[in-house]
Amino acid sequence: VGEPKLDGLAISLLYEGGRLVRGATRGDGIVGDDVTVNIATLRTIPRQLAGPLVPARVEVRGEVFMPIAAFEELNRKQGELGQRLFANPRNAAAGSLRQKDPHVTASRALDFFAYQLGVQEGGPTLRSHHETLGWLRDLGVPVNPHIENLDELDAVITFCERMLERRHGLGYEIDGAV
Question: For the whole model, what pTM was predicted?
């Protein structure tokens, strides 16, 4: 599977009985920040999973990012108010998600794409990464629309070259392809 590698903030979402119960950053790889209250303000993250195959417990891993147009608008407003400008969309997304006031997070146009499962208790047996991403999409979790199933090395190389060519037209920053 080929995917654009989003340049954002890694997030883990825990669902129990289909309901979002926790959002956390990766932190130092062992201990992350609990950002559940702020995650709940993102319109693209479902509070409740949909469909007949909702597992008892599932951890959805993905990336929170700020679209480039939203970043430019945020910096324009920050500048007009004489406030500090953000260096790039990744820093703006991370700062927006980690700050203490969920109203500030809600006022910023953050987005999310899932890219992996962590814990899965219940639900279907998934045989491939591509199948996993399709299942997440069926549950109502946003998955990058530029993901492709690739069946040979030449297709992988072509995908990577295409991402390099298209990266500035995606509307969000990537730092490669995976």
Answer: 0.90
